[in-house]
């Protein structure tokens, strides 16, 4: 027990020092986020500064309450990675909204071309009334066209900014029609819009199915945590073997297996990135 109390006292000291640094450190031009934290968490759900403070606080509280260094580290990591492991994918809703916006844009182009407007003029007109999800990239496209940038290059830049397979199909169709004076472009855009809306419906059904797996993850996590807290409060003698160094090693294995199971479940339900039609070419090796 002395080993655990000593280690957790040091942990609490470092946690308090970390919180003081975060509290009094001046904000940077990028909103105060620490640069090395951006590499640790690729898709943060909340501000990294607040999340780090919460993780350090959780580690200090659990460590002082239990006297177990492994439990303290596990609590801190649980708070840090909880939004990623248990929460929903923050980019999934954005991808669905972007596909639907591309469908609306294709329909706008189809209707404008049906009124005997030129292709470049139709694209330029669509950039001023674009759907919200793709309004910024289309605004840049409109600025490029007004600056007399080549039509094909402007569309390539748009595809790179959108980075979406459905948008690649629309962009490729526009580029082909511009270069080869292709006919029936309006009909093709209508078909692409219909296909995009079908993708939206499929994505919503898949998202609902993934929600069931995320609910199972939350239930398992709550049950595991509740059982551990219940044993610590109601029957602490059952957990006394974990006060030793060997007990901490066993606890590290148990916590690692549980965390690995949650991470694997997350990998299973994670959507695979779709293959793009206009993906940027990889740099050639020298």
How would you describe this structure to a colleague?
It is a single chain. The chain is mainly α and 286 residues long. The chain has two domains: 2-85 and 235-269, no CATH class; 91-202. The protein is built from eleven helices and no strands. It has helices at residues 2-24, 35-40, 48-66, 69-85, 90-114, 119-126, 135-146, 151-162, 165-180, 185-234, 245-269.
Features:
about 290 residues, 2 domains, about 0% strand, disordered N terminus, 11 helices, mainly alpha, disordered C terminus, elongated
Task: Report the total helices.
Answer: 11
Radius of gyration: 26 Å
The biggest sheet, with number of strands, parallel, antiparallel or mixed sense and barrel status, is:
none
Structural class: mainly alpha
Written as H for each helix and E for each strand, in order along the chain, the element string is: HHHHHHHHHHH
Unreliable residue stretches: 1-45, 282-286
- Overall geometric form: elongated
* End-to-end CA span: 59 Å
Percentage of residues in strands: under 5%
Range of helix content: over 70%
Average pLDDT, rounded to a whole number, is: 76
